[in-house]
């Protein structure tokens, strides 16, 4: 499958949650990397790629104190993420941009960012779940 991504600076581009799912489904070498924190995985849920015969890679982009994870690339490589395509997902589609850029700089790619993330940005009322992976109806589960 060919992906038509929204152009981006420093990585392959931005794709919608549905485009991410389609890429993961259609390309046997494609991998999903969830870069949220352990707390987010446990309380908000995680993408479920089991029906595709794939396991999602979980690699925190930031540590519990909000600082960049210095072991991020090492953890990607330890999980076997070396080539692409690699689809990066966070809560709202912001942290995953940095992850896609760093992976691209390290020669891992093509690396994509999932627009809207897992549950989207908060609205003016502070509530999420108006966009993103979950709202798109893509498979997910509580961890």
UniProtKB/TrEMBL annotation:
It comes from the Bacteria. This is Rhodanese domain-containing protein. It holds the Pfam family Rhodanese. Gene3D superfamilies: Rhodanese-like domain. Residues 26-130 form the Rhodanese domain. InterPro entries: Rhodanese-like_dom, Rhodanese-like_dom_sf, STR4-like. It comes from Luteimicrobium xylanilyticum. PROSITE patterns: RHODANESE_3. SUPFAM superfamilies: Rhodanese/Cell cycle control phosphatase.
């Amino acid at each position: 499958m060919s992906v038509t991504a929204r152009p981006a600076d420093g990585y392959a581009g931005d794709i919608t949650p549905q485009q991410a799912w389609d890429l993961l489904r259609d390309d046997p070498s494609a991998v999903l990397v969830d870069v949220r924190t352990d707390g987010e995985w446990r309380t908000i849920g995680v993408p479920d790629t089991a029906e595709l015969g794939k396991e999602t890679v979980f690699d925190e982009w930031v540590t519990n104190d909000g600082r960049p994870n210095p072991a991020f690339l090492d953890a990607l490589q330890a999980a076997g993420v070396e080539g692409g395509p690699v689809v990066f997902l966070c809560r709202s589609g912001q942290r995953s941009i940095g992850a896609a850029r760093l992976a691209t700089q390290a020669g891992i790619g093509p690396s994509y960012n999932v627009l809207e993330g897992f549950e989207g940005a908060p609205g003016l009322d502070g509530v999420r779940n108006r966009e993103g992976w979950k709202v798109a109806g893509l498979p997910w589960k509580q961890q």
